[in-house]
Amino acid sequence: MKYKLLILSLFLFLVSPVLAQKLVPAKWSWTLEPAKPSVGQEAEIVFQVKIEKGWYLYSSDFDKDLGPVVTTVTIKNPVGFELLGGLKAINPHSKFDKEIWNGTYTYFTEKGEFRQKIKITAENWKIEGLYDSQACSNESGLCVPVKGPFVIASSAAASDVITDEAKKKNPELSIEATASPVAPSESLWQFFWIAMGAGLLALLTPCVYPLIPMTVSFFTKQKGGKGLAFLYGSFIVLIYVFFGTLLAFFAGASFANFLSTHWIPNLLFFGIFIFFGISFLGAFEIVLPSGMVNSVDAKSDKGGIIGVFFMAFTLVLVSFSCTGPLAGSILIAASQGAFVKPIIGMLGFSLAFAIPFTLFAIFPGFMQKLPKSGNWMNEVKVVLGFLEIALAFKFLSVADQVYHWHLLDREIFLAIWIAIFGALTLYLFGKISLPHDGPSGKLSIPRTLFATAILAFVVYLIPGMFGAPLKGLSGWLPPLSSQDFKGNSGEVTVKPGSTGVVKYGDFLELPLGLTGFFDYQEAKAYAVQVGKPLFIDFTGHGCVNCRKMEEYVWSDPKVLKRLQEEYVIVALYCDDKTELPSDQWYVSKVDGQEKKTLGDQNLDFQISRFNSNAQPHYVLLDPRKEGEPMVTPVAFDANVDHFVEFLDKGVRQYKMN
Q: Which residues are in the Cytochrome C biogenesis protein transmembrane domain (predicted)?
């Protein structure tokens, strides 16, 4: 038994650093270019960041109110130089995130670079400051703050990047990442397939489908066979991709954040989608000038390669009244993402659109197997109209959330969607008709099944009016916190004090209507008072996986009940930039840096007490003792049963103490 205990002790001693350790996923270094500038000369501070594989680092050039931690560099008391402009990120990646942030952020993988221009004003100069950034993992779902000091001076001794002693004092701090963003290539692939789906839908509309006989008629008169047919399809793709390239050039990554978060473009997109939707419902047709269309069509009679090009151009123009809204929707969505996204979107859309026409040009006999034109094409168009109108309110919702207008809170948004999809259900079941509908007859089986699916979606939306989280639509709906009426989903039994006023409660809140604290000492005192264990949630405003844990795990009735009834909750935001009163500042024993903000102090507490620097990080403590956590802390884990077991172990341990 003694040997077993000795082996077990040695094992725990060896693995404990692995179970709880500070992560350093990104390492900063800095130089000055040129290294020895003269007085009056301009120079650049060059910050290089080496990022570990599987991690990414948020950049400095997106809206700081979006959510993720924006990289900042703070210069302390400039000596012998002056700043010229702001910090510049060099070629970061860009991504539009609908699910969590509803906006575009920029980031680096593998390596990052930032530059700050300065002008030397004296022989002796000293550049001293702090960098503050956040790295997140695509694999573990953790986010880690990466911050520290830097010094560059005119003396040779102080011009080193950083001394070994300083490195020991300041191991670059980091914080665990949350649900990391999907890799750009994956996101573009998803968007490509969505765009292809839109292209296939466009084929079924009444101003595109009838063009198939025109294509067949044209190519039966041409000499050149399959070669000209393939060229025809290629020209269709090139025309659409050309417009995508134009958009990418004029509205690339630097413009994407403006498009995704500013109220002007979002209201403009809202209006465009409403306009497209009403057009699809049959109120009016969107047509190009007839003179332009006829002029292009006349040139297609020349035959040969030139004729084929103008035939493709004629197809694009004639079908514009139906394809314009769909292609425009793809371009609007693409304009809020990476530089290549509009090109990828138009490539997917045009391929789906061009391939059938190419096949019919090669094999005209296929036309005999097509279903006849009829009222079903107008029905497809009407369905698209309802969908366009529903999507329009997503753009209005983005502007409403960013600027806190509270015009489209969650229940209002849901009521509008229920009304839109309810009307679509009635239309599909034949209970209402629109101007261009033909005589109603018996419902087809596909239409009946589709109508039933839309009705099921409406039924799914209705509980959301009473506070249901509707997890499947979390990225599309306004946050649950914007809803005035939440039914009983937010009721809690733990009340922090008789007045309900808690420290920092005026600007911080817990999710799901939970009541708790945002200061450790205050929460600990209350937990002792009510005789309950303490649930510490090390979290962050920019922590994606924190939000996913709250939305997918905490919201589960089994978890929510335990948090409400068996624990006192304290949420410690490790990235909050609120500067505390000067009498609360202190110098950390971990890195020797002065901690002035609420987030820095919470992070320092997490590192010094629990030897961890990543979020989300959940700790269960017995508030009556100053010992170790009652059970091993956990990080991101979307398995509800695992989290329930974690909470139950903590309660059992608390009762045993």
A: 189-396
Structure tokens at 415: 């009521």
Rounded Cα–Cα distance for residues 433 and 439 (Å): 9
User: Which of these, 330, 305, 150, 157, lies nearest to 222 by C-alpha position?
Assistant: 305
Residues 626, 534: contact at Cβ < 8 Å? no
Exposure class string for 406-437: b at 16+ Cβ within 10 A, else e: eebbbbbbbebbbebbbebbebbeeeeeeebe
Please give the backbone phi and psi of residue 608, each rounded to the nearest 5 degrees, phi first.
Answer: -70, -35
pLDDT surpasses 80 at 443 = yes
Q: Indicate the burial class of 259 (C-beta count within 10 angstroms; 0-12, 13-18, 19 or more).
A: buried
Q: Cis before residue 623, ω within 30 degrees of 0?
A: no
d(CA 215, CA 224): 15
Per-range mean pLDDT, top range of 49-53, 452-456, 549-553: 452-456
Distance CA 278, CA 387 (A): 11
Shortest CA distance to 604 belongs to which of 630, 573, 646, 564?
573
* CB neighbour list of residue 541: distance below 8 Å, 6 or more residues apart: 67, 69, 573, 575, 576
Contact in structure between 492 and 514 (CB atoms under 8 Å): yes
Joined tokens for residue 322: 């139906």
**DSSP 8-state code for residue 157:** G
| Contact by Cβ (8 Å): 461, 470 | yes
Determine the average pLDDT of the residues in 33-60. Answer: 90
How far lies 382's CA from each of 209, 282, 427, in Å?
Answer: 15, 8, 9
Amino acid letter for position 411: E
Write 147-153 long-range contacts (CB < 8 A, 24+).
147/172, 147/173, 148/28, 148/172, 148/173, 148/591, 148/593, 149/593, 150/28, 150/30, 150/47, 151/126, 151/127, 152/30, 152/31, 152/32, 152/45, 152/126, 152/127, 152/128, 153/125, 153/126, 153/127, 153/128
Three-class SS of residue 310? Answer: helix
Determine the Cα–Cα distance for residues 279 and 381; give it in Å rounded to an integer: 9
Q: Are strands 42-51 and 103-109 parallel, antiparallel or unpaired?
A: unpaired
pLDDT at 286 over 70: no
Specify whether the CB–CB gap between 72 and 60 falls below 8 A: yes
Chain CA centroid to CA 404, Å: 19
Helix (H, G, I), strand (E, B) or coil at 181: coil
Average pLDDT, integer, range 342-367: 79
447 near 428, Cβ under 8 Å?
yes
Dihedral sign, Cα of residue 377, residue 378, residue 379, residue 380: positive
Closest by Cα among 167, 336, 348 to 258: 336
Q: Specify the residue for token string 């990289």.
A: 71
Q: Is the pLDDT of residue 497 over 80?
A: no
